[in-house]
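User: Structure with iron/sulfur cluster, tokens only please.
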Amino acid sequence: MLPLMREEGYSYSFDPNACASCQGRCCTGESGYIYVNKIEVEKIAALLGLDVADFVQDYLYKKGYKYSLKEIKYNDSYECVFYDRANNGCGIYEARPTQCKTFPFWDYYKTRVEELKLECPGIKDD
Ligand code: SF4
Ligand code: SF4
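Assistant:
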């Protein structure tokens, strides 16, 4: 069993054991943005053994002045292009973006805990 995770300034904790049976709800579902910065792009491209330019073309799209990982449609919902459905995990785990590493401790959710609970079954009240 993995220990509960807590972050200062957040009213909830997170049980990482929930991920095993969750089927990647934070990587799938409604369409969203998975932002990556230049360093993250370089790391993911290196992990995949791709040139940065090829990686950008194949896996990213521009949203305003930022770049997001692409999504693919799966039935009636969407999922990150790197979500590994067969293994219920991230296909680029070692190089996943900060946005993914820091979930579910995002500023956005500090005041939206009930919304977060609907997305993530690992959220606890203490
Ligand atoms: S939604 Fe929560 S429990 Fe599910 S995979 Fe993501 S972090 Fe884990
Ligand atoms: S990069 Fe990995 S952790 Fe992040 S949304 Fe995609 S599959 Fe999930």
